[in-house]
Every structure is written in C-alpha cells, then in structure tokens.
Amino acid sequence: MDILERLELAGWSLERRDGQPLRLPPELIARHPAIPASLLWFLDRVSSCINAKQTAWFLCEADFCGTSDSAFRWDEWEQLSLESVGDDAEWASSVRAFWDVHLPFLLSVEDGYAYHAIATSGDNLGKVVFGREPEFEEADVVAESFEEFLGQLANRPAN
Questions:
Q1: Could you tell me the domains of the chain?
Q2: Cα–Cα distance for residue pair 116/136, rounded to 1 Å
Q3: Which of 23, 47, 102, 131 could form a disulfide with 139, with the two C-beta atoms 3.0–4.6 Å apart?
Q4: Coil, strand or helix at 62
C-alpha cells in the first residue's frame, strides 16, 4: 500500500491528478529552487488533499498557480505577517527572509491559522516545520523530511 492510500485510510480526502505534467509558477521555482523531490512527487500525483473536517488542506498546483477556489492564497500567512509589520522595513525583511527558505505546503484553520512548510534552503533543508499565528515565523521542526511527515499523517486520523 502506498502513502497516498494510507492517507486515504487515515481519513484524508484525495483527488488524484489526471497525468498532466506538474506546472508550478516560475516565480515559485525561482524563490524555492531546491523543492525536495518527495514534495514534487506528491504534487505531481495529487490535485487536492483535505482532512475530514475540511479544516486542513495541502496546497496543490492550482493553489500555487492562483487558480484554485480556495479563500486563501498559498502565501496567505506570509502576506498577513507583512501586513502586520506595517512600515517596519527591518521586520518586513525578516518576514520575507523566513518565507524565502520555507515553502508552505499545508494550511490549517482548525485551531487558528497554522501551516506546515518545508525548508528549501539553509541548515534545515528538507525538514518540515510547523508554525501558527500570531507569529507565523516562529516555527518548529516536526519532521526530518516530507516523507516522514506524510508517514506521521498516515498514522493518525485526519480529524
């Protein structure tokens, strides 16, 4: 049984992609040139993945391309942080620097705004972090890899 089937058994609702090549926006690739192959593999196979309560979902190609019907942009939490810093250029630079090396791939509104992201550069390259409001950029490593993270999700109910 593959990891996608295990996620479904854990209660995640998946829609599989139709075999078309994955097309992420060039600006996303430019900002995150080292997206781990395991995340690209997942994005190439899934067009939608949402938990049972519909309060957490994976960002997929349509989200990154801005063509999904989601109320949230893929970089929504970054944009909220930038709005909150106002005219503080140093703080805004710090926010951008964090998101330059962390690509969000799962958003949640279960208990406030939260996310999981994968580090695409630096010492934590390939590791999965979790952050939540109000300080989105204060994130903690929760898995050593995307594969490990998927395994964790597949081993617990999707609420």
A1: 3-154 (3.40.1580.10)
A2: 10
A3: 131
A4: helix
From first CA to last CA, the distance across the chain in angstroms is 22
Alpha-carbon span 29 to 32, nearest angstrom: 5
Q: Which helix (H) or strand (E) holds 124?
A: none
Q: Give just the sign of the alpha carbon dihedral 4, 129, 132, 60.
A: negative
- Which secondary-structure segment (H or E) carries 67? none
CB atoms under 10 Å from CB of 70, counted, come to 16
Residue 88, H or E segment: none
Nearest C-alpha neighbor of 64 from the set 108, 32, 20, 101: 32
CB atoms near residue 78 (< 10 Å): 21
Q: Which residues pair with 103 in a beta bridge?
A: 118
Residues 88 and 46 sit within 8 Å (Cβ to Cβ): no
Contact 5, 151 (CB under 8 A): no
Q: Summarize pLDDT for 75-131 with one digit per residue, the tens.
A: 999 999 999 998 889 999 999 999 999 999 999 999 999 999 999 998 899 999 999
Token pair in block for residue 61: 């190609």
Average pLDDT, the chain: 95
